[in-house]
Design brief:
The complex is a heterotrimer of chains A (567), B (312) and C (336). Chain A is an alpha+beta fold. Chain A is built from 17 helices and 19 strands. By secondary structure, chain C is mainly alpha-helical. Chain C has 13 helices and two strands. Classes of the chains: A alpha+beta (567), B mainly alpha (312), C mainly alpha (336). Chain A binds chain C through residues 274, 296-300, 342, 344-345, 348-352, 383, 407, 409, 411-412, 414-415, 418-419, 421-422, 432-437, 440, 444, and chain C through 74-76, 78-79, 82-87, 104-106, 174, 177-178, 190-191, 273, 277-279, 292-297.
Chain lengths: 567, 312, 336
Amino acid sequence: MRKQSRAVLGAVLALIAVVVLAACGGSSSSSNSSSNTSSSGSTSTGTSSTPAPSGPATVVEGTFPQSLDPSIDFTTQGGEVHWLTHIGAYSFAHANGTAGTAIIPAGATALPTTSNGGKTYSFTVRTGMKYSDGTPVKACDLKFGVERALKLGWSAASFLTSTIVGAAEYSTGKAKDVAGITCDDSSGKVSFNLKSAYGAFVDVLAIPGVSFLPASTPMKPEPTNPPAGLGPYMIKNVVANQSFSLVRNPNYVPIPGISAGKVDINVKVESNTTTEASDVLNNQADVFDWGDTIPPALVSQIQGSGRFHAIQTNKTFYWFLNTQEKPFNSVLARQAVQIAVDRVALARLGSGQLVPGCYLLPPQMVGHPTQPCPPTGFNPAAAPDLAKAKQMVQQSGMAGQSVTVWAENRQPRLQWCENFANTLNQIGFKATLKTIADADYFSTIEVLKNHPQAGFADWQQDFPNPVDFYQNLVDAHAIAPVGNSNYEEANDPHIQSELAALYPVPGSQLNSVASRWQALDYYVTQKAYLVPFGYLSSPEFVSNRVDQSSLIFSPLEGPDFSSITLK
Amino acid sequence: MGRFIVRRVISLIGVLIAITILVFALFQFLPHPELQLAGRFASPATLAHIRHQWGFDRPIYIRYVDTMKLIFTGKVISYDQQLNVDHELVQRLPATISLAVGAGIIWLSTGILFGLISAWRAGRWSDRALTVLSMIGVSMPVFFLGASLSYYIGDKLQFLPASDYVSIGSNPWEWLKHMIMPWFALSVLFIGVYSRVLRSTILDTINDDYVRTARAKGLSERQVMIRHVLRNSMIPIVSLFGLDFASVIGGGAILTESVFNLQGAGQFAATSVQQLDIPPVMVITIFGASAVVIIGALVDVVYAMLDPRIRL
Amino acid sequence: MTTSATGTELEAGAWTPDHAPGEELPPGIGPYRLALRRLRRNYVALAFGALFLVIVILCILAPVYSHIAHMGPNDENVDQATNAVGLPIGPTWKLSHFFLGADSVGRDVAVRLLYGGRNSLIVGALATLITIVLATVLGILAGYFRGPIDGLISRAFELIWAFPIYLLGIVLGLVLGLSGLDLGIVKIGGNSLLIPALIIGVITTPYVGKPIRGQVLGLREREFIDAARQQGLSHVQIMFSEILPNVTSTIIVFIPLVLANAILTEAGLSYLGAGVRPPNPSWGNMIGDGIHLLPAAVHTMLVPGIMLTLCVLGINVFGDGVRDALDPRAKIRIEH
């Protein structure tokens, strides 16, 4: 009998051990509780009846940025932060609408001068700038920032490796530095030498990942203790995957066009979108993640609150059809799909936040065609002519062909894919769905030998230039064994010759070639290389504490936290 | 006895090593981790560079040894955020442990109570009612139960918070309010199982010879029940509890944690799998499986002490 | 839920048809006939067995209902069945038109409920078959031969037992869902129902295999096995003709438990995105879909959730009756 009580005793001891462990876990997490307390503190100020106008404001995000280290991150959630903390030579203007697509000199004194047939970009770095830790900024810190991004595997590094001389060699360790960047700390002059003329290069320099960094920054990822930057805010109190704060930078040396900010910001992650939205609706948080979609269950309530605006931000959703494989090697079969896709239904399935359309270039982008949709002049906002599409499939001789639709396994993308497969079945194909986990979806369809027959894809502008869409999604040069982003595997001589002529056009002269881009985009839809189905608007949704009239919503980086004013 | 324990320990170590190998091997089937690490449209040269940097190009047995070295020295780094996994896991353990301890107390005490009543009143209506209850409990998917609770009690009635975890250190009252529904949801199944097992064991033991002997010795019914029947019937319950508790601690309550968004170890593992972020999944699986195996071995040893016939 | 939670329930094994104390054993009636006679008198168990049977029949008749409702399981009617922001309509209670409402893409919930039930039941049945066959074979081998074979099989059981079921399921689901399973002779596509069935079947094997092994360990010491050996029967013959019949009642008792557990596990895996692949319905992924729509369109979660609970409840109560019938003293031995 003693032995039995020992068994019970053992279980009790195990329980006690675990409780003690829990206490240890609790205390160890409270060691970095500065952010915990500050974020919970902010929540309570949010709920209390007399909020302090000085903030901080609470921003809820659906997902944590890929990394808070600017040399790694390239996500919506990271971009809007690094836009304010880590600034490079150029930046996107802090303004609403089309004005927000302008590029302003930030760390540089003026827009760059180009020479050498558009292959060399030179500028001078502003004097007197300081990092948040007080160290003065040097011209060569920009070169260091680029090198660090290359070394740490910045997610958009291909923009650098494909353009700057020696960047690819540096990133793979074959060169000691990036040969194409020259800099001089004493004169402040920096120049970039490109492999070929590339008109959108200033846009690339304005992406938040290309920034000045103190040369003392370690060459390793610093996601919880990001390097110092020269922007108006600095990142503090990082609790990975949960929260961090944006604190106004006391050493900020004002740059024209970039405000010093009015309140500090606490960012916390709320992975349940419904909770996230209701937190803002109930004024427990102040700004909703612009990368998330308002859940359908709350749309009408949120629209009724008067604190919600749908903002067009140039995000195209499309179906790709593999032009190298049956049945979509037939133009007629592809065109049948182009007219059959039920864009009205797809818009509904996207919580009504999707604007139906048929062109790759989104409405606010230079080059968006204005004609009715080819090939039949159909209206994307009306019910599709399925009978006509069915007839075209018959004509193409591809009726009854099986099609595997590659689908992303999250909402509403999965629902869109289910609807698309259903449409294909209705017009005479035999469509089945192949669902892939989100994290794996693009890396899987980007492996060329998988030859996905048809599937979902989307593109959000990285910078306001049609080159961004075309060089990645349509250009035959983008076809690669891995990292293939030309999913349709289109290689059309007309497109290629047009692109060769359009790439070198500098961003400042974009309007002069607008009609040429329009014609090209029209052509792509007409040939149905891609089947774009709509443009998602982004939510500008804030609590009643936030003065919405003064809030700036950039079409590129979302709500500008430095413009937040609390009532 | 000593030889039995030595043998059990050796086989325990064998199983633990096998677990690490199996976990490691399982993830070799997941395609191309370098694609996740490389970001968009990486060139083959970049991919090769990353493969080299993370050691993916090395022979599989060397990678296994390297990975285990990292895991057991606490230096393993996640792919996704490139953070120290052990550190991340420690941050999430309070939620999981809160869930396990609270739910454990509830399901053990309620399970025993219901089991006793059922056995005591075997065949009567109270036994039947409890049987039906426990049957419904074991028949309901926990995420359905959890989501229904969260919706009706959390969202509709606003009686308790619908989801999320609040650390006990920052606000004990909020912590309690946030934990009540997860505790209940997780306990329901176990209460059903435990009360059924206890009822059967008691009914079984009552007819055993030694109980008859005890009665024959003239012990009171009460003494017989408590000293003989109950004590013996508790053995399986306690051992089950050890295993179940270990598995919840080891991230086994994935569904409960996910549906209430507790951000514990299990949910950490589930989201990491979905992001194909393999290092955290390896660490949690090895940690959880080890907990179950070690407690299983302890239970075996205790059993062998109680019942020499098991020493086979 | 957790691995051993269901395990504990399944562990309760090793029954032989037995007679209740005091019950008259009619001469000439075999133990199974007797059990059947007892089961026939257990009206509660029979009623729940009938409930399960009705659900199975309804699911088999899914195509018939699909015809009545004018909708296939994957047919969408976004236009009529959702509002401008994509919220589905609720139940209309008209058999011919969205009887139980629509789901997030405008599909008929009632039609999908029946087709989804088919998928859930098929996965459950296949998984049960796999578990029972594997567990019987491995359990008998381990218990009969003991020594290194037992060591190997028991450690393998322990290994699988130690893994969190759902984690193992998600990982396997991810790997197999992506590439399918190429067994050389047969190739199973990533969409096949066989994949979740196989995953669940394998991961539940130890819960049945362990008790069978334990029972066989006891049996092999009995006189009749010695006798069979003396007669010169081969190992295979002994295992088949002497041992297997003696563990049959254990297996019978386990079948409903394993089936109920497999259906629940499938639901959990589908909820986590690693079970039945969309657009094919299963009760699990339908509940998951409904949870995403909360706090609106509650019917999308409730309808499949209640159906699943009723179905599993039917199996469990009936299974409990079977166990009582085979062993009225409800004798439970825990095997380790």
